[in-house]
Specification:
4 helices, alpha+beta
């Protein structure tokens, strides 16, 4: 490990690396390992190399270190200056805009099916609520002509996958969420409305979160 990366115990960075504070924009990329150590780098450094390995480099793409997903707990990936500029303009018009939904910052977490703790799924955080979290994982399917994404649902602040489904369109996303939140009449009623597709997906995420499954 070169001196371009600083290894710091987790407790000293607890406030700084509250990676899922959606209103804060971190200034550096970081990797939190399973042993509690956090590696801080420059702004454009975390690269998802394969489904089981990531690479952490400096801004020039040098001094790279590779880590297997099995050693990783969380990753904070910072976007480009252009993305930050776009976000700031959006923030002026929409004060409640969230940086993680604007490409400014992306949070990844190693998730597990309870039946297989040896096969982590590195997935990107799409929504964090009080009761559940939603993650996405790009699927590299051979000969696929359209984008395929696997979605994972966990309880709040958990790495255990409680539900997963393949995402194709927002309509199918709503249907899959409705299957999971089938006991929530408020969510089901909104999904079944004729103009349901005109609402943003975040509307449905927040509605689902209120169901407290």
């Amino acid at each position: 490990m070169t001196n371009r990366f600083i290894l710091i115990p987790f407790l000293f960075l607890l406030c700084f690396c509250n990676a899922y504070a959606q209103d804060d924009i971190p200034t550096s990329g970081s990797i939190e390992l399973n042993n509690g150590e956090i590696i801080i780098g420059t702004a454009y450094d975390v690269q998802i190399v394969t489904s089981d390995k990531i690479k952490f480099c400096n801004k020039q793409g040098k001094d790279c270190q590779k880590y297997p997903i099995t050693e990783i707990n969380k990753i904070t990936k910072i976007g480009t200056k252009a993305a930050l500029k776009r976000y700031n303009k959006t923030k002026e018009k929409y004060p409640n805009a969230i940086p993680m939904n604007s490409g400014v910052v992306k949070y990844f977490k190693a998730l597990y099916f309870p039946s297989d703790k040896n096969d982590p799924k590195l997935a990107k955080l799409e929504f964090k609520g009080e009761n559940f979290e939603l993650y996405s994982q790009e699927l590299n399917l051979p000969r696929a002509k359209i984008r395929h994404v696997r979605m994972y649902i966990t309880k709040a602040n958990s790495s255990d996958i409680v539900f997963s489904y393949r995402y194709h369109t927002d309509k199918k996303m709503m249907k899959s969420l409705a299957n999971y939140f089938h006991d929530c009449s408020a969510f089901k009623n909104e999904v079944e409305k004729k103009n349901a597709h005109k609402n943003s997906m975040r509307f449905f995420y927040e509605l689902a979160d209120s169901c407290k499954k």
